[in-house]
Automatic annotation (TrEMBL):
It is an enzyme of class 1 (oxidoreductase). Residues 7-382 form the FAD-dependent oxidoreductase 2 FAD-binding domain. Pathway: Cofactor biosynthesis; NAD(+) biosynthesis; iminoaspartate from L-aspartate (oxidase route): step 1/1. Pfam families: FAD_binding_2, Succ_DH_flav_C. NCBIfam families: nadB. This is L-aspartate oxidase. Belongs to the FAD-dependent oxidoreductase 2 family. NadB subfamily. Catalyzes the oxidation of L-aspartate to iminoaspartate. GO terms for cellular component: cytoplasm. Residues 492-525 are annotated as: Disordered. GO terms for biological process: NAD+ biosynthetic process.
Length: 525
């Protein structure tokens, strides 16, 4: 195993990781792991935009209030206020870097860039780059990162687990390169920006979703995980069983799109006074109920009344993509279905991105900051990435003395990898999670999921537990353990709140809610 020494090691090259690298570089040297940059990461697939208080007619208190309502009583108000307050400066920073946000040239505009409205927001406060905001942000950040003298990007390494020491500190990460050769990257400070856990489910809004690998890497080092039971399903993913996942942005409903049920009529009007602009948990459950009641495998999102000119102007990416699949959205409603989209739970952190493990930080979707509570409000995710990346960078601007305790050595295997079995076990895990731990749950289903996942894990240990270091095997090991912890967390919450809806305890708890907290030790060894 080769060994190298680094100052700040950032694992993950999405919006959070790239922003963090740019902000801390100049004060400290950075090594950024970004394997397969064109395929991995959810940030580049974000369509809607970034929520921030930018219009003179909007105010921070309204953004805070909307976020607290969407979070259904489980947000950390300090984290909400911190994030909202960072919004305008974060957008100005992106503008200074050259992100091509869509301009608003109409005479009545009170802000130079177009602001749209999405579910849960009481005002137009979502700035965007047409309907491909994530791609625009990522490509701009990558250009600056690639040319920064203090940042070294490694596309050839995949992290398998974190390096710990006998004092309980994080000391870097064990990785392998594309040839399977192991590398130990020792670092003064390590930052996880590895994304969420939507890959635990069969249907997602991202072609290459993370499966909670970073969460479990941190948990196995002793970090606390929070709110794992709150997995967000985006209400409107294009329903195309033969094609790859494709998100239909919430901004489509923000600009007037209507959801239609089996009878061709709007059903959200009877569910919530905000109709299609209710928070995502409410809309996703309503779609699921409509599908279950009428035996549908999807519902429809109707934008025909907006007209082709407006659709091409506001949603060029969606219009073109649907056309490439033979669907003219100006003439035909879009078939849509909820799909796993965002993890509101993750590694517990403070406002600096610090975890409970010294010298280990987490930012972006892998972290649970308290911003989202039981349900993330639309377009608060990229805002969180920027706010906490910049806050964490400020905290790490000066390095602290590293631990000198002896390192813990990783376990090593020697057997060959059965790639087909890896695929079979992952597919089985996703089927279990999608059937029993998705939008609507119940006690028997959660119990069945716990038992089935335990059996899958036993098979993994028996047949794959002693293989050579391998990225896919490592990912599956982490995913199985996180899936099991998610079920434990869901069974422990004896109420329905936000994204966690249990038929056997459908009401809010009478006592004030608290975030759920869990350690990897809950699974035993």
């Amino acid at each position: 195993m080769t060994e190298s020494h680094h100052d700040v090691l950032i694992i993950g090259g999405g919006a959070a990781g790239l922003a963090m690298a740019l902000e801390v570089a100049g004060q400290r040297s950075v090594t950024l792991l970004q394997p397969q940059p064109d395929a991995r990461g959810a940030s580049r697939w974000a369509q809607g935009g970034i929520a921030a208080v930018l219009s003179p007619s909007d105010d921070a208190e309204a953004h805070v209030a909307d976020t607290l309502v969407a979070g259904d009583g489980l947000c950390d108000e300090a984290a909400v206020r911190f994030t909202v307050e960072q919004g305008p400066a974060a957008i100005e920073w992106l503008l200074s870097l050259g992100v091509p946000f869509t301009a608003d040239t109409t005479p009545e505009a009170d802000y130079p860039y177009h602001l749209t409205r999405e579910g849960g927001h009481s005002a137009r406060r979502v700035i965007h780059a047409d309907d491909a905001t994530g791609r625009a942000v990522i490509e701009t950040l990558e250009q600056h990162v690639e040319h920064h003298p203090d940042i070294r990007i490694r596309h050839d390494l995949s992290a398998l687990e974190l390096i710990g020491d006998t004092a309980g500190h994080c000391r870097g990460a064990y990785c392998i390169n594309e040839s399977g050769r192991p590398h130990a990257l020792l670092a003064r400070d390590t930052v996880l920006a590895t994304g969420g856990a939507s890959g635990l489910y069969r249907h997602t809004t991202s072609p290459c979703p993370a499966s909670g690998e970073g969460m479990m890497m941190a948990a196995e080092l002793g970090a606390e995980l929070m709110n794992l039971e709150f997995q967000q399903f985006h209400p409107t993913c294009l329903h195309d069983p033969e094609g790859s996942p494709f998100l239909i942005s919430e901004a489509v409903r923000g600009e007037g799109g209507h959801l239609l049920g089996a009878n061709g009529e709007r059903f959200m009007l009877d569910v919530d006074s905000r109709a299609e602009l209710a928070p995502r948990d409410i809309v996703a459950r309503a779609i699921d109920a409509e599908m279950q009641h009428n035996g549908l495998d999807h519902v429809w999102l109707d934008v025909r009344h907006l007209g082709e000119t407006a659709l091409r102007h506001h949603f060029p990416t969606i219009h073109a993509h649907c056309a490439s699949r033979g669907l003219d959205i100006s003439q035909t409603p879009i078939p849509v279905v909820p799909a796993a989209h965002y993890s509101c739970g993750g590694i517990g952190t403070d406002l600096r991105g610090a975890t409970t493990v010294p010298h280990l930080h987490a930012i972006g979707e892998v972290a649970c900051t308290g911003l989202h509570g039981a349900n993330r409000m639309a377009s608060n995710s990229l805002l969180e990435c920027l706010a906490f990346a910049r806050g964490c960078a400020h905290h790490l601007a000066r390095s602290t003395p590293p631990s000198t305790a002896p390192l813990l050595t990783p376990t090593s295997g020697e057997g060959p990898v059965d790639a087909a079995l890896v695929g079979e076990l992952r597919a089985a895990m996703r089927d279990i999670m999608s059937a029993q731990v998705a939008i609507v749950r119940d006690d028997p289903g959660l119990a069945a999921a716990e038992s089935a996942l335990s059996e899958l894990n036993q098979q993994f240990v028996r047949d794959l537990g002693n293989t050579l270091p391998d990225a896919d095997v490592s990912s599956l090991r982490h995913a199985l353990r996180l899936a099991r912890l998610t079920v434990v967390s869901a069974r422990a919450r004896r109420e329905s709140r936000g994204l966690h809806h249990n038929r056997d305890c459908p009401l809010h708890a009478e006592t004030p809610p608290a975030p759920s907290r869990i350690m990897a030790s809950a699974l035993g060894r």
